[in-house]
Write a structure and sequence with these properties.
This protein is mainly alpha-helical and about 200 residues long. The strands form 2 sheets. A 3-stranded mixed sheet has the order 4-3-5. It has a two-stranded parallel ribbon with strand order 1-2. Helix 5 runs antiparallel to helix 8.
Length: about 200
């Protein structure tokens, strides 16, 4: 008799939990980090995976149903990134549909994004370095953050209230608006949402 989706889910869950607990499962659990394979397998393009939410979901679920691994990764944070990367004017990568053809995967753009004489600055103020130096180098939309005051310089008894004047510029306002526009894109893509379960996927 065929097992129900609920039974299959519970079976896989027991298998994975047994392996994590260093017990002996009924067999070795399998998890696939698919990359762009689902697009190729289902006849869509890598570019569609980067920009078409519904197509990415369809190709990912179809591939998982055919291969039936025990676990899966969230397909969106490493693939449905086209809108996010474009909104940031991201410079460290070329991707399908942006610098690469529709069936080529990510290409890293070599560059000196952290310079040899900046290690002390990074170690002294890691958050400030990322905000004011690194992000502006790798994302054109965040270039105005270069003009923010150093984080360590605003820590005082009035907690840096005077530093708010730095936000009174069209450039900083535009950068913050770009960040605000990213929120619904990132929520849709599930970035930071962790692993997806399989309950209800198999049937």
């Amino acid at each position: 008799m065929d097992k129900t989706p609920e039974e299959l889910y519970e079976e896989r869950e027991r298998r994975v939990e047994a392996a994590i607990a260093l017990q002996t499962p009924d067999r070795v659990p399998v998890m696939c980090l698919w990359g762009f394979f689902p697009a190729k397998y289902t006849g869509s393009t890598f570019e569609e995976s980067m920009y078409d939410y519904d197509m990415l979901m369809k190709s990912s679920v179809g591939t998982m149903i055919d291969f039936q691994p025990d676990m899966c990764d969230n397909p969106f944070p490493i693939r449905y990134l086209g809108p996010t990367l474009e909104a940031l004017d991201f410079r460290q990568l070329k991707w399908p549909g942006h610098g690469c053809d529709g069936m080529s995967t990510y290409q890293y753009v070599e560059g000196e994004y952290m310079k040899a004489d900046e290690y002390d600055a990074f170690l002294f103020d890691p958050s400030g370095f990322m905000l004011r130096m690194y992000w502006p180098r790798v994302s054109g939309a965040l270039e105005p953050f270069r003009n923010l005051p150093p984080m360590y310089s605003i820590i005082s008894y009035y907690m840096g209230l005077m530093a708010f004047s730095a936000f009174d510029s069209p450039e900083i306002e535009a950068a913050l608006e770009a960040c605000e526009k990213l929120l619904p894109i990132m929520l849709e893509s599930g970035i930071g949402a962790g692993r997806l379960g399989y309950k209800g996927v198999y049937g």
